Automatic annotation (TrEMBL):
Transmembrane segments: none annotated. This is Carbonic anhydrase. Catalyzes the reversible hydration of carbon dioxide to form bicarbonate. Reversible hydration of carbon dioxide. SUPFAM superfamilies: beta-carbonic anhydrase, cab (SSF53056). InterPro entries: Carbonic_anhydrase (IPR001765), Carbonic_anhydrase_CS (IPR015892), Carbonic_anhydrase_sf (IPR036874).
Amino acid sequence: MQSLVEHARTFTEHVAANAKDFERFADGQTPEALFVTCSDSRVVPSLITGARPGQLFELRTAGNIVPPYPGRDRPTGEAATIEYALCVLQVRDIIVCGHSHCGAVGAILRGDDLSAMPAVRHWLERSTDGRTPPDDAGDLPGAVQAHALAQLDTLRGYPAVRERLAEGSLGLHAWYYEVHTGSVSVHRPERGTEFARL
């Protein structure tokens, strides 16, 4: 914790040295993409993409799960973030990025007993939406990639996403990041469910 505190304490010096870059943030933000990824501490969107402050609007959840659109009577923070990104910030792309060694998808695959963590259990159950895990329960990379594609399907159920897709003003992308190599693979829709390295 102390190293984080020390960096925060001296961060204003960095900002002062790069004043012009930071002064423009007072006028608002215009991110290029909404980056949906796992809360896992090993996954750092700006490190993976090289994004500078202001380029990515981020949504991080356990297992990079996008819950179904809740409607007006049961709003969620995830739904609010997605709507804001599309309707106010007008992002042009949404990236759902899964990652290797994902504990959430691994727990789904293995059928782990999560009774001691009811919130986690419920969150993961919502993500599977009654779907069964792949036949090969040992294929975690394949399961994570399929999971990212399933989140894109869930996103297509959001009214704002549907509208922007119909206009042709939004791109949806599924990525897979290897935490131990830094390699990024992307889904190629023309190849079915196949992911290919960038």
